[in-house]
Write the structure tokens for this entry.
Amino acid sequence: MSGVELLSAPLRMRIRRLPPQLINQIAAGEVIERPASVVKELVENAFDAGARHVEVDVEQGGVRLIRIRDDGCGIDREDLGLALSRHATSKIASLEDLERVASMGFRGEALPSISAVARLTLTSRTADVPCGWQVSADGSESDFDIQPAQHAQGTTVEVRDLFYNTPARRKFLRAEKTEFGHIQTLVQRMALARFDVGFRLRHNQREVLRLQPDAEEGGRPERIGALCGPDFLEQALRVEFEASGLRLHGWVGLPTFSRSQADLQFFYVNHRPIRDKLVGHAIRQAYQDVLYHQRQPVYVLYLEIDPALVDVNAHPAKLEVRFREGRMVHDFLFSALHRAIAGHRPGRTASVVAAPATENPAPLAEQPQQSQQPLFRVAETPQRPYLSSGDSETLGDLRRLYPASLPNPTETRAEQEIPPLGYALAHLKGVYILAENAQGLILVDGHAAHERITYERMKRQYQAGGIASQPLLLPVRIRLSRADADLAEEYGEHLARLGIELRRTGEGSVLVRSVPALLEGSDVERLVRDTLADLREHGSSGRLQETLNTVLASMACHGSVRAGRKLTVPEMNALLREMEATERAGQCNHGRPTWVQLDTQALDRLFLRGR
Amino acid sequence: MKFRILREDLLLPLQQVIGVIERRQTLPILSNVLIEVEAGRMELAGTDLEVQLVANTDMEGKESGRFTVPARKLMDICRLLPEGGELAFDVKPERVSLQCGKSRFILGALPAENYPNFEHGDPEAVFDCEAQLLRRAIEKTAFAMAQQDVRYYLNGLLLEIRQGRIRAVASDGHRLALFEDVVDGMPDVARQIIIPRKGVLELGRLLARVEGSASVRISANNVRILFGTFSFAVKLVEGRYPDYERVIPKTACRVVVVDRHELRGALTRVAVLSNEKFKGVSLEIGEGLIRLRAQNPEHEEAEDEVPADVSGEAFAVGFNASYLLDAINAVASDAVRMSFTDANGSCLIEDLSDSRYRFIVMPMRL
């Protein structure tokens, strides 16, 4: 029966105004999704009030109680009621203010939305009054009863029984632990936005998190470590880049410190945490060809930009933003990060592998003692079974030929500074180069390292050489949507510079007349379609470059020393020196690491030394 | 069924048939050869479902029957038996035993009824021509066929019959090769067919040693060519071949005649220092000579000069050296004529003494 009623209802309905509480509940639906959303809105308010310290108390995952107390500027007695009504705010006053929002909030919706779905108590005291004032609301009242209350300077917002009047929402809540987990992550995330604000988070009266405010950088590792894991800072590069009014700073994880999930990616625009497609794309592009397959980079980055150049009024929870100069921000982020990642060389930050615990020390223990002796004796003695007598003679000749260029590593260690990747000791199984540096043992995958060196050289040469294009005898016709064909026409010149020459031949078709010479024989149609899709989405495309790089990478792979080819010590040393001088030498073309360090402590641990 | 056959009578046709049988198979029977014996004749057939080759050979005996045995194993056995030996076959449903002198082998057999049948269909156009003409048509064009191009119709050879002429065209989108000749007694039909790459290469190989005439039978979806003791059939590539006539340059404003061997020598030398991937070589064509230059990404340079008979203004043009070399190598005469419309347009390459074939190569912007 009820179904029939529902169906026929619209026919008889008249248009009428919604009651204010329902309006607020609808608004709350956008902003207040779960307890963590309440915490987000209220902590942002605390930031905007200039708080130096924020305390968050949570009970039962935030469903029973969320209390947020700050020491900010407080709210005047007269404004308390207004604060709880819709579209009332102190943060902006005019359209001009909206166009350059510097505060976290501005919509004037947080408090009324929360009070529409929970029982809210607001207590506040400003600096210049003798006592605080308190007001309570559950979304239904129009007049507020303001009571005096005891309170230090600042504001406390108490939210009880969240979603008590919206059972539908309540049903979607997860377990207490999960909801609190969200709150904890959120507080940590917010804590990374403002290092100068102290935080305390308690769950069911138990302290979970305590962060001291700090203006300097001293406390930062602690906060970052809490969020990204203690290894992150060791495995991350510091980024500091400023250009054309934009400033980017923070940390990006080394390509080898990547994750399978995009869960450790924190990006802040003017202290506001956001998740933005444009930003994500720029960062992914910067990591291009150093990241292994589908791995996700790890980063904590802060972008500072003139508030007038960002529109934060694009998303109710302000998770997305719009950049006025999207293309410029994209290029800025890309070039800053690309440079940072490319510039990472061995020796600047060490990628240290933790030695496996002592369960299985056998393989290393079996290593022959000779590896510690000067190398030439090893080469001369017939202990290496793979050297025929003829070979050892040649080696002896070689040694006489180049006596000076083959420094004895044991002597060098004392005499001059040891390069970051040290000096080669031996070639293991024709694959791994063992080298000794100041910290201990270096293991290098010879093929992977050489592949990267060849690849980087080829890329440099290709870029320097200009692009040869191969006109097609039989042009390729591609059917496109009209919008894509327009785009192809619009970017025609840009594409021509890259070697692809297109001509519009109809509403929805283009004719490809030439392709980059390096890419002849590849699927032109797919390349053009993918490039256009990128241009449509992001206004720029690295697709062509990526495809060219793939060709160069496979050429580099074929042009590099193969695993299994035995390298001599001078060859290995030359490779190590070149690695030190090559960009992105820490990863091979496929994003696998090329070298690891086993330092003396790690080795000591293996043998239980000094315990 | 029992029969005897001379080693040589079996080995030669078997070696031809093996060419179409793929080494690795998902369908076991496709690695077998189908042998049909009937009244003093033996027929050997191999197929990969796209190409089918049937070879005939004479033998003694009156028995008849059909069976299939692993082709490569049978060939290896025949090959390794002493010359002039006689093989005695004893065919049982699942086992085929053969004996030659003291050597004895038992091969597993699969039933002949399961061997895939190659549907021939009704011929729509039939004509006879010299087998060597077909061979030349393939030899002059096959190198320009595309390989695994997404435009699948380029991965084959266009065979066109029209007005008493036969034409073969191959192109990979960068260069094109065309062969054309008159065939007497050609029926008055116009047909265009595309023979897939593998079929073309296999046919070229088979025709190399055949004299006499060949009979070509084109049906809706395959073509069968009978020559010598062979019957070769191949499924056609569906689809329309691009309008190749449009790309043949009609007017030439610059013509260069150059010694083929000298040009080839210079190109090969200069190409050593070209980009290893696309082999870019630039040709500066001036009065009485062609200057060839190449540079590789390491900025190493090569330069060479070839005397040439040049008409028209001096100009420079770039080429993929391999494309140019392929065309020059297919030319038979000592001198080769290259005609250009402009520096960006295509280049027509012709044999001075034989007008039956032409090559078109697209230049490259270096």
About this structure: The mean pLDDT of chain B is 91. Residues 123-246 of chain B form a domain with the DNA Polymerase III; Chain A, domain 2 fold (CATH 3.10.150.10). Chain B has three domains: 2-114, 123-246, 248-361.
